């Protein structure tokens, strides 16, 4: 990414397809002073050619609002891009071989960092032992986070660097995990951190992502990491970064420049690590997970944030955790008034195990559901991890996007990267072709949740859509025929007829190629151009 340019150019884009509710037949757009100035037809575009700095011939390409990824861990994403990625390892043996190769290739690293292992998908289903990791690293410090980032396996040398920790030879969770993660990330130099952040933001820009919501906090990263990322994004051309700091200290969140004391403020953990908090025990374990905050703590935090003019937000995956959030927010509404709570647009991250009652409560309380459709693509289905953890009946209830939309709950889509990759069109596809058919939504609704939904989640209703006056955050795509698509006639009609008056989107039927990003623009400034395009 380059240093931030001065005033952005005035640009006319023409001879393409512009996805805009202002004109479903638009083929051209004018951008001026970082905003959309005009959207319309090819014939009318001629009137603007003399008054712009640049004319871009789209040659039939599609222009859409840039995506917003509403849940990202930017530095961790960059470290996964530049470090050891185990997400494609097909077996324990393959993972250990990758560890050996990585250790040999990085002799100068103080701590070896890796991410993405998932023993549930390996033959035998077991994670590496500490002895196996010690052998693979030659006795060096190693931290390997599980794919959901709520547990990790480590080498003996890393434990020796973590004071006062006597940990079992098993994946570490909760406080033990937070301790070793702090040790591992503390060994990352400022230069490594900046390199990782630049790599993550560059990847986001290359995928048509114009904004990321950074979900940071003391149990996830560090204050220096958070403020360094915000400074980097402010100084250079690249995606916007909206920062959330997950701590109950509201004054600190304000001091650090966060828009909310929110994001991954943990009410519970994750299903894969058996730490999501459930009302009934896991199918494959004799406990109900881990509770970090109760309803009283949730209520106190929501009150404090609301009074300070900040968003509150919570990580809640299990049904008991979601219940605690709902009860806490409702108690805050009883104290401050429902209107003030709704106006604050507090958030719930993940919100996977919902019931009709908690969905109705989200709608009543004005809570935004910040959700990750790729979780279902990765772990859903009759043979997936959800079924293994919860059994078939409970697993089929997870991630009910259609029910949330029907109830009027605002949705914001994200990846939780590096838990799942930055992949906006893949995310839209995952929601439209949910493994449980009754939870599917139309491609248009999913696209809106991944563009405008992210802006609405931070209180901006004027962005994430290409209409005059909106921020000029857009992406240009090479794609096939545009359609108005739903995977099920119960959701919405499928039409390729332009007379429907609805702007078309790419055909995301599984098996079709996803659109290729040619250019990404943020605030009128180009932040990515595909090489040789």
Automatic annotation (TrEMBL):
Any one Pfam family match given in the protein's UniProt record, by short name: Amidohydro_3
Coiled-coil intervals, chain numbering: none
Record-linked InterPro entries: Amidohydro_3, Metal-dep_hydrolase_composite, Metal_Hydrolase, YtcJ-like
Superkingdom field: Bacteria
GO molecular function: hydrolase activity, acting on carbon-nitrogen (but not peptide) bonds
PANTHER family, sorted: IMIDAZOLONEPROPIONASE, PROTEIN LONG AFTER FAR-RED 3
Protein name as annotated: Uncharacterized protein
Origin species: Streptomyces lincolnensis
Lineage of the organism: Bacteria, Bacillati, Actinomycetota, Actinomycetes, Kitasatosporales
